Q: What sequence folds into this?
């Protein structure tokens, strides 16, 4: 089953609990949390105290995406704060194998992320280890960017690699996804689709999520 992961970066932080409750009513099972350090990416966002606060108001899976250079230092802190799964960038982790194993040893699922310019081949040595792979479909750092269609080829390549090897990693996409292209992502092989501004910037976020879920189900039937 394809999951739609609302990105809380685009939610109303003055009414974050209400927005999370809306997503629960829409039937999502996972929430995406973007963490940026102003160094690896040109933006600065929330830290562990906010994740801890989110954990207090929801039992949904918290998918924490670390767009930071000091992932080894901070991944355990975010896990302690309530993250269920943590993804780190291949481009930011010189000892990627060790970092992924450390996240798993802390009790969370470990994901690896690649930017639009990073080839899938850069992950060859960790695909058997990673619990999931996140393909950025925009350049990381800001919400509301236009979807980069060439990243669909990376999802297709990862899906083919998974089929041929018998690996079990999930494939996630993040950036520019909405009702207009969710089917393309699912048909390419995406299992988890992150959407922020297309959900929280819509007139009715709950209805938008449900529409994306329906479009994903239809595309999954075609993919099967």
A:
């Amino acid at each position: 089953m394809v999951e739609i992961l609302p990105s809380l970066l685009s939610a109303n932080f003055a009414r974050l609990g209400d927005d999370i409750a809306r997503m629960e009513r829409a039937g999502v099972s996972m929430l995406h949390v973007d963490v940026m350090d102003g160094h690896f990416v040109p933006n600065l966002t929330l830290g562990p105290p906010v994740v801890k606060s989110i954990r207090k108001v929801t039992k949904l899976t918290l998918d924490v995406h670390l767009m930071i250079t000091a992932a080894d230092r901070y991944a355990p802190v975010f896990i302690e704060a309530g993250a269920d799964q943590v993804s780190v960038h291949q481009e930011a982790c010189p000892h990627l194998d060790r970092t992924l194993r450390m996240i798993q040893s802390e009790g969370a699922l470990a994901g690896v992320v690649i930017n639009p310019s990073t080839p899938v081949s850069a992950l060859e040595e960790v695909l058997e280890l990673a619990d999931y792979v996140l393909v950025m479909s925009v350049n990381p750092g800001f919400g509301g960017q236009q979807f980069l269609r060439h990243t669909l080829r990376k999802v297709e390549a990862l899906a083919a690699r998974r089929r041929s090897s018998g690996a079990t990693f999930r494939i996630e996409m993040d950036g520019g996804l909405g009702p207009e292209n969710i089917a393309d992502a699912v048909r390419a092989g995406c299992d988890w689709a992150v959407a922020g501004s297309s959900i929280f910037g819509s007139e009715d976020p709950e209805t938008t999520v449900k529409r994306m879920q329906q479009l994903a189900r239809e595309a999954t039937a075609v993919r099967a």
Summary: Strands lie at 3-6, 30-36, 61-67, 85-89, 109-114, 132-136, 170-174, 192-195. The first helix runs from residue 16 to 25. The longest strand covers residues 30-36. The radius of gyration is 16 Å.
